[in-house]
Amino acid sequence: MTTLPQSTDRKLGLVIDLDTCVGCHACVISCKGWNTENYGAPLSDTDAYGADPSGTFLNRVHSFEVQPEQGEAQLIHFPKSCLHCEDAPCVTVCPTGASYKRVEDGIVLVNESDCIGCGLCAWACPYGAREMDQVERVMKKCTLCVDRIYNENLPEEDREPACVRTCPAGARHFGDFADPESNVSKLTAERGGMDLMPEQGTKPVNKYLPPRPKDTLSEGAGDIDILAPYLEPVAQEATGFLGWLDKTLEKL
Amino acid sequence: MHPAPSVIFFTVFSGIGFGLLIFLGLGYPAVTGWSAFAFFVIAYLCAVGGLISSTFHLGHPERAMKAFTQWRSSWLSREGVCAVVALVVMGLYGAGLVFFGQRWSLLGLIGAIFSLLTVFTTSMIYTQLKTIPRWNSPLTPVMFLSYSLAGGALLAGQVTWAMALLLIAGVIQVVLWMQGDGALAGSGTNLATATGLGTNGSVRAFEPPHTGTNYLLKEFAYVVGRKHSFKLRVISLILMVGLPVLLLAAPFSHWVALLAVISHVAGALASRWLFFAEAEHVVGLYYGKR
């Protein structure tokens, strides 16, 4: 049914730490691997070794440059996947009922055998979280690894989304946002977790932790190492032959 | 947005076809027998042809029947339901006119209302999308309805109505273009809100996630032809409104009317191409394409 549930028992989702992400794309690869080998249609690649390679991914890492008014520019690696929105516009536009949001845990899923591949849900998503698979001709999206998190055949430590399990920097966290005592709720509260495009009214479940300010090496003496005075340049101005050369060239 | 030919043909021809059905349902022109047959064939060719062409962009057209189930929430599903009701009711009404020489006016009125609703529901598929600020305007359904009624009046041979409705459609289209040009900037969605990084400084897309292209870029970040958009707008307006109105003002003949129809359809196709090609989806922000 493509109407949204009034509320969900749990709100499973991710916290993505933009301060910690190093942009290694390991989450992209582990996501593609798990979701190609397991539930649903595989994530295809077209012309993978040719001149115009393209493929379906449920998770992509962008990089943005942030230039403050003063100081150095910051490079932010920015992983982006489905935010499992509370008010998911992709669900209500679906004409067949293939897209739905689960009442028990809030995960937004596609029933691929009902999908006609019209693409309207991808049009309705502001985040680019849905991609039409060019081989299977059905809509693919992040399932929050629904076939891992409840999978009792896996060791307990593996029962989290593949992207979270694989992240070497610990930049991705999985949990229940409906529980104020959960790891993700606490992280969001402590670090000021934010919504992407809040003005779109989608009420995303996934939260992003903003990057902390970078060290300011160029300003303030407070941060300078105690050995710094010994490392100061000794000769501020050239003397001798080089001094004479400098002055002569200036005069020319 | 990628201007898929199937969707451009669908919206233009089904719009005109259902527009003609609206006029036929209301009894303009009040035809019966073979002449009614000819009018209904044209209307059904346009409306059904458009609907069939819309299935060409589906990944799994064999499952299209499932699209009738979600009319409670989905405009696309409502469109399908309205279209089928309109076509069935107008089919019965048309059979009365053609085979029995009877005008069942209540049936015609119901068919006309559902034909109008079909065009409205089509327009709402686009209007509802907050992700495409240019379309997310109350003027979008007005534009679709005005095109449909103008095209319908033209095909129905209602010269006075056609001239007035063509001019109205032209004015609405110009206002929609002007409004649409500032829609993305006015929507409040930009790279700063998309990334949440705006409080730290000015944000710039530094590196895309992949060196190659992808579905999102092909579908949503279409930019080719934008630079010619002003010229295309003028051409489409001349073909869609200017030339047909001039031709209709001339003494009536079937050949001149045919010319007016061809010119109008060509202009409407060009304008519908622009409707898609110029639409900026906010996901393009993440790729630095806006």
What does this structure look like?
The complex is a heterodimer of chains A (252) and B (290). Chain A is of the alpha+beta class and 252 residues long. Chain A contains 8 helices and 11 strands. In chain A, strands 10-1-11 form a 3-stranded mixed sheet. Chain A starts with 11 loop residues before the first strand and ends with a helix. With 290 residues, chain B is an all-alpha fold. Chain B has a single domain (5-287), classed as Formate dehydrogenase/DMSO reductase fold (Up-down Bundle), CATH 1.20.1630. Chain B has helices at residues 5-25, 33-54, 75-99, 105-127, 139-155, 159-181, 183-186, 191-195, 215-220, 229-249, 254-277, and one strand at residues 202-207. In chain B, helix 3 runs antiparallel to helix 4 (105-127), helix 4 crosses helix 5 (139-155) and helix 5 packs antiparallel against helix 6 (159-181). The longest helix of chain B is centred in the N-terminal third of the chain and has 25 residues, at 75-99. Chain B starts with a helix and ends in a 13-residue tail after the last helix. The interface between A and B is large, with 68 and 59 residues. Strand 4 (59-67) of chain A pairs antiparallel with strand 1 of chain B.
